[in-house]
Amino acid sequence: MPNEAVLVVEQEEPVRSFLEQQLTDDGFEVLSADAARKAFELVEQAQPDLVLLDAVLPDASGFEVCSRLREGEPGRSWNRDVPVIMVSSRSEPVDRLRGFARGCDDYVAMPFMYEELLARMRAVLRRAGGPRRTVLAIDDLTIDLASRTVRVAGERVQLSAKEYELLIALAEEPERVFGKEELLRDVWGFRSLGRTRTLDSHASRLRRKLNSNDDPRYVLNEWGVGYRLVAAAA
């Protein structure tokens, strides 16, 4: 599969160098970045055919990067349907689900066999351009990940970009309480709790938009801990 361009986004130099060498030997044009900022520059400038994305980067989480690739950014232009494979040491089912919810096409846990990664890359590239339509449904709340549309009881709800990302984060495990530090890291890329007002204000607006009365069912505040999307089943 010669001449297809792959962007490797990986903060660990040994892993990045290994992938660069192996993929070059297999006929790919290889670009690389060790941080999110450089990755966005390259994905816009080079328009790669596929992105291999580390889930943990020094300046943002890979999950946030994937969301931003799918969403696009004002004043910047890239293919928002570019295939993305997350390559990560985070191998728990919740991490895989989080990756798919943010828009990745495949998720490969480390350590991995290079031959398996190559086979997955080729499969994703074959599927590229096909229909992408996945819908999350929680009670009467539906989230169309392809069109990024949200509906409650069939009525469309208009959300800002960060409100949508916060909703996706909570929808990955609707009944689980997500800590504020975790949400700030995965949605905003913050590394400390110093910006909790940002999270709280977005959660408050999201709650108002998803609920039609003063007894909210969605975006529940667990005081002193964080947020969950819906109450746990009795």
Structure description:
Helix content is 39%, strand content 20%. With 234 residues, the protein is of the alpha/beta class. It has two domains: 5-127, Rossmann fold (3-Layer(aba) Sandwich); 135-228, Orthogonal Bundle (Arc Repressor Mutant, subunit A), CATH 1.10.10.10. Strands 2-1-3-4-5 form a five-stranded parallel beta sheet, sandwiched between helices. Strands 6-7-8-9 form a four-stranded antiparallel beta sheet, covered by helices on one side. The protein has a three-stranded antiparallel beta sheet with strand order 10-12-11. The longest helix has 15 residues, at 196-210. It is elongated.
Can you give keywords for this protein?
234 residues, alpha/beta, Rossmann fold, Arc Repressor Mutant, subunit A, 4-stranded antiparallel sheet, elongated
Given as residue ranges, the uncertain stretches (5+ residues, pLDDT < 50) are none
Structural class: alpha/beta
Output the strand order for the largest sheet: 2-1-3-4-5
**Main beta sheet: strand number and arrangement?**
5 strands, parallel
Give helix % range.
25-40%
Order of helices and strands: EHEHEHEHEHEEEEHEHHEE
CATH architectural name of the largest domain? 3-Layer(aba) Sandwich
Shape: elongated
What is the CATH third-level topology name of the largest domain? Rossmann fold
Oligomer state equals: single chain
CATH superfamily placement of the largest domain? Response regulator
User: What gyration radius follows from the Cα positions, in whole Å?
Assistant: 18 Å
Number of helices: 8
Percentage of residues in DSSP E strands: 15-25%
